[in-house]
Amino acid sequence: MKIVDVRATTVAVPLEAPLRHSNGAHWGRFIRTIVEIEADNGLIGLGEMGGGGESAQLAFAGLEPYLLGHDPAQLEALRFMLANPTASLYNNRTQLLAAVEFACLDLLGQQLGVPVHALLGGALRAEVEFASYLFFRYADPRTRNGEVRTPEQLVEHARALKSEHGFGTHKLKGGVFPPGYELDCYRALGEEFPGDLLRYDPNGALSVAEAVRFGTATADLNNEYLEDPSWGLHGMRQVREKLTVPLATNTVVVNFEQLAANVRDPAVDVVLLDTTFWGGIRPCVKAAGVCETFQLGVAVHSSGELGIQLATMLHLGAVVPNLAFAADAHYHHLREDIIEGGKFRYRNGKIAVPDEPGLGVRLDREKLAEYAEFYERTGNYPYDRDPGRPGWYPLLPNDRWADPEDATCPEVY
Questions:
Q1: Coil vs helix vs strand at 280
Q2: What is the pTM of this model?
Q3: How many CB atoms lie within 10 A of CB 138?
């Protein structure tokens, strides 16, 4: 089997409402680039990468000299062809490599008639559990629905998600409002769901002192971990020394050198593995093995997925023996998807691992065309800017918090 064609299509898929985070916002839609790699036997493997728009499409077109004629089974060769560690100082292609790896594994699974998890050592679980992943949200500018800004709105939203999807773990994405205000919101979740597990993630926006204060003030709650309460390995290490609640990260341990540094001098207890950030599913499985050896916790991270990347997260979650935490997913904030059959469905807080050959998802061509046209119409947006605060940008540690009384958001489509 040889690769004969590479195609990339950028889409914009609407969200229920704009999602706010410490660096800015998702402006009412996820922008993703869908990759199709066609083999000489007529099979098509699927990959997905965040954002990029026209530049991502051109980047994948630029990989054709590397990919055309290559055997998709030669994945280690692809790793060094596309993302040699020294060459990547000039042309960092880690996320491009990840999308290519997804598609190649999809091709191999289809050719052999087995799901991707069978290529990775075999599934240990048939379902993967997910957390609710709660965001502060602007109201949708068109419908004026979906706002999450107050503790009452946050609890109401979490209650609705728990009722609809069965979540038993609740993660609050913070770093938007002043820490004291977010503390009140987080404690409101704990009081509403005393039997459920909690997580808080301000994306490193807090100072070490603020992170310690937040951790101390929530020590009586049913915390699983605090995720990136402060920035940097050394900052996290200082926080960890002063708290009893475990710390997790998806920002300061995202490659094997950082993982080695954390093993040698621990700063975090749980490593969130992202199939895009780590360069594919296979590096995540490898990193999970290192974590197993050194008794570090493992969770599956979300970077704003559609169904193709969600499938990679499910296959990863299926094969990792030491997955002791519910996975993250932005997925339930999406209105639709670009895969056949529509969105994956949650049941009792879990999603079934695909068991069809390859990744187990196929493109809905009509939806792909619809959301490609929607992207052409609406264009890109700056992920690290807030549409409701023109000219704003954050510092680390941040002190430029949003006003909890301000619900203003302009048209974002």
A1: coil
A2: 0.97
A3: 25
